[in-house]
User: Which sequence fits this backbone?
């Protein structure tokens, strides 16, 4: 029995499947098991578990966010947005959530939709490097690129000084600004 239990702890899906058998009405268990199946690439099972968790309540923010991420990863941006929006209604304090929703808008070239989400992400966590990079990219789409783009990339570079991509962006925008 101990050997079986040790194996289960090494295999998270088995552990969460056992938890689901013991607590079939646990939204938390369904959400966590959905994450595991999503990481394994079993999107259908992950989708089913996230939907069940959302219907049950208990972890609606995480389950909505995770289902939005699943659609996002699949490239179904229009399907992802409502789940991110629902998660944002439930949790106003998650910088990563706001940044993820902004990325969907950026992929659709909806800069006006992305801007307030990125600003909110940075209000919540000024050290969110991804949000700085995304905001800089948004500002960079101006013609000519806004000085705000350089400022955001410089902030991102302070947070990740070894990031060559950000360093190249800073150098390029500095050269452009000096012309």
Assistant:
């Amino acid at each position: 029995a101990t050997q079986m239990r040790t194996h289960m702890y090494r295999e998270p899906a088995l552990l969460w499947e056992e938890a689901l058998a013991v607590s079939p009405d646990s939204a938390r268990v369904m959400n966590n098991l959905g994450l595991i199946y999503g990481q394994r690439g079993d999107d259908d099972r992950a989708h089913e578990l996230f939907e069940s968790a959302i219907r049950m309540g208990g972890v609606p923010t995480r389950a909505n966010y995770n289902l939005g991420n699943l659609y996002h990863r699949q490239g179904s941006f229009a399907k992802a947005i409502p789940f991110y929006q629902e998660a944002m209604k439930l949790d106003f304090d998650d910088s990563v959530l706001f940044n993820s929703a902004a990325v969907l808008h950026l992929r659709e070239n909806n800069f006006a939709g992305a801007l307030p989400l990125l600003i909110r992400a940075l209000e919540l966590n000024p050290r969110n490097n991804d949000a700085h990079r995304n905001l800089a990219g948004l500002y960079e789409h101006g013609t000519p690129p806004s000085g705000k783009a350089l400022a955001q990339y410089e902030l991102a570079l302070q947070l990740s000084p070894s990031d060559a991509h950000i360093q190249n962006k800073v150098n390029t925008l500095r050269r452009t600004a000096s012309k």
